[in-house]
Amino acid sequence: MNRARALSHLLARAPLALPLRTLGATGAVRGKASAPPSPSALAAEPFLNGSSSNYVEEMYNAWLHDPKSVHQSWDTFFRNATAGAPPGEAYTSPPTLAEPTPHHVPLSSLAPAFSSSGVAPAYASEAPISDKVIDDHLAVQGIIRAYQIRGHSIAKIDPLGISTVDESQSRELVVRNYMNRFNESDMERSFKLPLSTFVGGNEKSLPLKEIIKRLEDAYCRSIGVEFMFINSLEQCNWIRQKFETPGFMHMDNKEKRLLLARITRSHGFEAFLARKFSSEKRFGLEGCEILIPAMKQVIDRSTSLGVESFVMGMPHRGRLNVLSNVCRKPLEHIFTQFAGLDTGDEGSGDVKYHLGTYQERLNRVTNKNIRLAIVANPSHLEAVNPVVQGKTRAEQFYHGDSEGNKVLSVLLHGDAAFSGQGIVYETFHLSELPEYTTHGTIHIVVNNQIGFTTDPRMSRSSPYCTDVARVVNAPIFHVNADDPEAVMHVCNVAADWRNTFHKDVVIDLVCYRRNGHNEIDEPMFTQPLMYNRIRKLKPVNELYAEKLITEGVVTAQEAKDVRDKYEKILEEAFTAAKSETRVFNKHWIDSPWSGFFEGKDPLKASPTGVHEDTLTHICRRFSSAPPNASDFQIHRGLQRILNSRMEMVKERTVDWAMGEAVAFGSLLKEGVHVRLSGQDVERGTFSHRHHVLHHQKVDKSQYNSLANLYPDQAPYTVCNSSLSEYAVLGFELGFSMTNPNALVIWEAQFGDFNNTAQCIIDQFISSGQTKWIRQTGLVMLLPHGMEGMGPEHSSARLERFLQMTSDDPDVLPAFSSDFAIRQLSDINWIVANCSTPGNLFHILRRQIALPFRKPLILMTPKSLLRHPEAKSSFDDMVETTEFQRVIPEKGAAANNGAGVKRLIFCSGKVYYDLTAARKEAGLEDSIAISRVEQIAPFPYDLVKQECDKYPDAEVVWSQEENKNMGAWSYVQPRVATALNHERHITYAGRPVSASPATGNKKTHLREVKQLLEDSLAL
Fold first, then answer.
1. pTM score, whole prediction
2. What CATH architecture is 887-1016?
3. Which part of the chain is CATH 3.40.50.970?
4. In what order do the strands lie in the sheet with 902-906?
């Protein structure tokens, strides 16, 4: 028999459904080839998929060349196969073959024990196993695998019975390819169960009929499990065991009564609001009342596993119910939100179904104290996800919870938003990043099978709304929301999964929406058939009460008593709420800072200057190679940078990177955690920062000098992020909400890209304190400047941030000794465009020195990073120095007040262009140039002071941005107000444009020339 014929014979006889990996290597034969794949190894991938057949061919070629070059068992196998024996008879197990590992399913496990046929398995004697026996067992294994992979597609997970995940699927189609070889009489035959299933429990073999029944119970009843895409066999086996083990959904009577009470409360809350506030929007939970018991079960189970704090985010649907029945928010506070009362404290407030809360309470099931926070959020669906993740990560960080054992994030979603909003995908991709992971999030989807008025078939391209979770290997548990006990099992498994593997998991609560999108919306306009069916359905509390009454777990009177007891609680709270005359926004704070505001002068900041010894120490460390420099090989270019930094230390000066580093280092010395996050921040987009040095020869060997300044310093976190703005900025916002004594910074790769995160900027950062009484000291570093790099690498859209500031351009604040800090206290955020490293140093430190927290929007330079004049002396940063809101003219013009003909106000990089052009034109004594470093809140007092110095000067605002962009529109009315409209300010700069910048270098240079001429024209 020639080689081709022999291989054809071998491979043709091989079964088509073998599911395992081969045991040996598949590369070239080295020395004596390894033993043939044992039966245990024949089970990881189909034999004819290419890799296994290639392996057999290599072994066969080696055997033909020299039978002694292969293992004895291969020799026996090829001799028998060449002689015509089928594979089952040709294989002989060598006595030294290793025992099968738990990750392999041995072929022997597929063979039956001695049966009435009298056929003995091959592993017990020399008698061969017939091809039919092998093929039948492989078909059974195929059936098992088919249910594990596709059972979810035919599970009864839809309480409406209208879901069509895949209309081509049916129970027969799922296993048709394997069932074709069996007839009715085979259903009673016993088959030995493979190690890839747990349906047998303690039994090793079962009749085929029983195997199928148990698989149906596991995968095709009220729960559909998607997990076989996970690339970890350990995790897949873990899930199999949770859902296949007989009796896996058992609940005792005490647990059932508790579940009924929770469902009753969930339903009763919505029914009560519907009666008392029938015309109010509340986005009720009717149709998915099981959400409340589900969340409480996740909390109970997780608490029993050691979790102490839960950070939650959710949309509007069911929020009031969650606030009341999960977080135990006082009912009176909720009811007063419907009363139309005036506020009794600061802030504009928000609609009731956006509000957050923070509660500390006793978990009565586990008898442990827990913390619960629901993060306030806007109507922008899913936008809160990264904020929750950032807050969770911060809590873990500050509690030393490096594995996420104590702090857990829970995210609730709607089905349409979960599949439709890109932020879901961005947030998922933070889940496994070292500096962003929360060590597993439990996601709960309230899948009411509709998005406002849009059917799922029109709102997503995937079978399930949860398919996005597959990208991070998160198991997905679809469950019928009208089967409460199935929901409880899924919640337990989800909590156990997160505790075991510290990875995300998704619970898909397939339910319905009994009313319209809100209570005054008519759903019959667009979903008449769906709502005709919904109106015939009993609510889940009635269904489950009837079930327990039938089982004898409760009586009808006991079920009524539970309803009546909760109704009484609601009525008493409703009566108490009527006596309230004010609502208080402070009752809804989601991130309280215990002790931060107490005992402080609200209008007194700490000094920002530091001792020169501190400056010198930090600068020297920042300019030095690692202590083990002889063993740590850095790039030659980096060594030059370090050398130039050391020269600056000797000269007592800092550039932009050094000024930033000294700000960070001095805060770290004071015990303030600093976190810098964003794309490429470790090196810096413009290769200026280099906070992390990389060994040129050793992978993952790094050195961070700022993390090694002092033995007792605070931790410094600098981390390159994923290529995302929306999710990462939201994450850092959440991180900053947790601890006011931390400097949290997000840097855009270019300022232009911040608008990808516009939702976080508009809905959270600019308005968060006003809506939710939530402060944050988050810093946004936005590289900005017109340098001929084109329209997408020039502008951070300064004008947009200024337009959203909350100061009135027509009202001149009263000047006083605390004018500057009072302005900061009153405004929603700070917008600055610094021109010196010294001012950068002070403004970063001021974020922590203030007795309150405000977001800082900071335009940062690009060309100034290496500009020889953009340096500051140590004298600008030592004790007694502070941030300069306006840097006045200090040259010849400052001494010639009466003779100055033009006073130019500008901000940022353009100052250096103006001074160079002024010097070249010889106008240094007749034109004064003052820099507005802090644009918002506007420095009325200092601008007026500068104008008073030059009474006869024409006042000009010069900017490099186009006229309809930059600071001009913000500055012009405020300068007029500062000068009491007695002097006029004119504009010098580029004309209006739809695009922020030209992409043509020649055009750019021509525009710069014109800008400078217009600014200096007398």
1. 0.87
2. 3-Layer(aba) Sandwich (3.40)
3. 254-573
4. 886-887, 927-932, 902-906, 954-962, 985-990
